[in-house]
Amino acid sequence: MASKPVTLPDRPFQDYIDNNNEILRAMKLYPDRFLGQFTINPVYARESLEEIKRCVGSGMSGLKIYYEVKINNPLYYPVIEKMADLKMVILIHSYSGIGRGGYRTKYGNLYPNESTPEDFADIASRYPEAIFQFAHIGAGCDWQYECKILKDFPNIYVDVSGSNNEAGMIDYAINYLGEDRLLYGSDNSYYQSIGNILSSDLTDAQRQKIFFGNYNKLLIKGGFNAD
Fold this sequence. Notes:
Blueprint: H1 13-29, E1 37-38, H2 45-57, E2 62-65, H3 77-86, E3 89-93, H4 117-126, E4 131-135, H5 143-150, E5 156-159, H6 169-177, E6 182-183, H7 190-198, H8 204-221
Parallel strand pairs: 1-2, 2-3, 3-4, 4-5, 5-6
Helix pairs in contact: 1-2, 4-5, 5-6
């Protein structure tokens, strides 16, 4: 899956269009290798809905967004409603500051608009028909706390990517979230991300689900298939 979110604040919407066009070019050059996700900024309400229509019409299969606003900000409501109609995944970066002495820091996040587990729980309750991807529990965050908060929201899928994949994280996540809600991701940290799944106490069938099967089922809901 290829994507290029805009990671700098207060950028013009043309930056989002340009990034989406880069992914579309990659998809066209290598159609057997890449599926593409588009990016938008809900602050630009009309432009975002128009860009979703354009990108989906060009064959893109999901949404990836960064820290523009929190996922439960009302600015996202029209976008989420559109994505729910399309049955496509909404992936957004998230974080939860590491706790101390059994207590989580108030946020501990680097950016004020980072979406927390509580933000995801709030929006998943409002839109149970939408498909959310919580990225990423291997990023040096309080992944135990995240799994506990997200446990009761079946429309939130969790990817295990990040550069701080601690031992025991996958087994813990399986225990709280189940084998059908975990998605593989690397965040360009390949040996940690793959090694942590291979070294976990999983069956081959469970590994296959995390590496491929779970996400492919989500793609099929939106009319795509990675087979």
